[in-house]
Predict the structure.
Amino acid sequence: MAIHVIAQKCGGCSLCLAACPYGAIAIVDKLAVINENCTLCGACVTACKFGAIWIEFVRKEDVDTSQYRGVWVVAEQHDGQLGNVSLELLGKGQELAQKLGVELAMAIVGHEVAHLAPVAGAHGARKVYLVQHPSLAQYRTGPYTDVMCGLINTYKPEVVLIGATNQGRDLASRIAARIGAGLTADCTGLDIDLDTRLLRQTRPAFGGNIMATILCRNARPQMATVRPRVMKKAEPVPGARPEVIEVPVTLEEKSIATRIVEVIKSTDGSVVNLQEADIIVSGGRGLKQPENFALIRELAQVLGGAVGASRATVDAGWIPAYHQVGQTGKTVQPKLYIACGISGAVQHLAGMQGSDIIVAINNDPSAPIFQVATYGIVGDLFAVVPALTKALKQELA
């Protein structure tokens, strides 16, 4: 990769200067001059309104893959806490790094997040690349992409793993497009081909009917987003301390296209993180009408669990989309999953069949949901669910 400035188009407006997070640009005689600090992150290319800066990519077949070493996990953090998916990826990352004979590292981007480095170390990271700046306090696509592209181009990991969350999907696709890397989305399995050192990236395809394993032979790094709750966390090792590499950046708010005005959090408990729940009670079209989700909510409340839903109920407008479990919703892996009036379409099964215990309640004995259920109840959910709720209230009183 190489970066070029077209003198005939550059007027020295300084937009690229303000956008560069690594202090790699100066304006000399009304011309942008790029120095040795450049990480090829592409922030200046995006900022330039005159097409005066462009990055020349190496053809993927000409990429020197031997320059890339190491397995990275890109941290997702909220309110100063590492997301569970990041810890899950560290667990898998240890396995991949061991097979490759390389170090496992975590990239942490945010503001006042240095306390997360020991957490990453306890869960297996040997190195932590730490980037802190007030403009990175909350996730925004632009600055996070600029910073991460700079880190990847500078330190050249051969594998980069990101959680397949709303944030992770947004960030990973932007990074891959910016640096010319391959990306496999929504992986449910990862392994190393020991003969070629290639990352075997497995994901559902064709509506979950087949599993595809994808190899990225040329472009680097090999990037994958991984669904939450499909990998197991490694047991933390208290006192393990990673090497921390602090990477300074300079960001100007005026060069960032978006601004977060206010963060509004739900106070009624209706917005749930299904991927973090240990108990989920889900409802399907068998509920017949949206008002009957009250039965599901009551049972979930008694159990201290979250409310899930099938795609059919979400598409019908019975319940908001953030409750949806399935291939096009959330992949969950709770200790207990109770499916009420859900027949068990393959897309739904792909999102919940990793649960420890599955209880299915359906009046159709041939429903596919019973094929994955630990316990099945063939009966009318309008009789079974209230009876189960009543019994649990008495038992737990």
Remarks:
- The chain has three domains: 2-56, 62-250, 274-396.
- Residues 62-250 form a domain with the Rossmann fold fold (CATH 3.40.50.620).
- The two ends are 66 Å apart (CA to CA).
- The first strand starts at residue 2 and ends at 5.
